[in-house]
Design goal:
194 residues
Length: 194
């Protein structure tokens, strides 16, 4: 089984690439952000440890984590962000490793792990990392039209993610998803034939 890591900045078109890999190559797709959300639900060990560290102020009225409050804490304090990552990341990696083993036993031939921060937190899971690249003007247009984001929000989001050089240096391949998706498909096909 090949384990492929997909990463890239917000608005680069990772979701479209993932759908294509699922449909055309029967890949099993694991989005690390979704795994992280699952392990932080009330009643989980991660939830307990987060509340133990940050206090009840991070619990919302519904009993789940108040992500806005938690985000406000960790994104304004580097040490608190490291504390949160120290709780969540090891468990996410453990869960994904287990899922990879399970899917391999089931005969899955292509397992795709997706995360914007994959070069930092999950590179050891993957046989190969791909950077899904799109020019900044293309990313901005996608985020405005698909999510209704403002220029200010987009600028902040892009600035908070790893830079292009960091993605490029961590990845074995760069898939340029700035133009027509048929061109993206061609690049994917060439890379998967290697």
């Amino acid at each position: 089984m090949k384990v492929l890591g997909i990463t890239g900045g917000v608005g680069s078109g990772k979701s479209e690439v993932l759908r294509y890999l699922e449909n055309a190559y029967h890949a099993h797709v694991c989005q690390m952000d979704e795994t992280a959300k699952q392990i932080q639900k009330p009643g989980t060990e991660c939830f307990r440890r987060i509340v133990e560290h940050f206090g009840s102020r991070v619990i919302g009225k519904d009993g789940a984590l108040d992500r806005v409050t938690l985000g406000g804490i960790v994104f304004s304090d580097e040490e608190e962000l490291e504390a949160l990552n120290g709780i969540v990341h090891p468990e996410v990696i453990r869960r994904v490793k287990q899922d990879i083993m399970d899917k391999k036993a089931q005969g899955v031939s292509l397992y795709v792990v997706e995360a914007a921060l994959l070069p930092e937190v999950g590179a050891e899971l993957c046989d190969e990392l791909w950077y899904i690249y799109a020019r900044e003007d293309v990313r901005r247009e996608r985020l405005k039209s698909s999510r209704g984001y403002t220029d200010e929000k987009i600028t902040h989001m892009i600035a908070s993610q790893p830079g292009e050089e960091q993605f490029r240096s961590a990845c074995a391949a760069v898939i340029d998803n700035s133009g027509d998706f048929e061109d993206t498909k061609r690049q994917i096909g060439e890379r998967l034939e290697l």
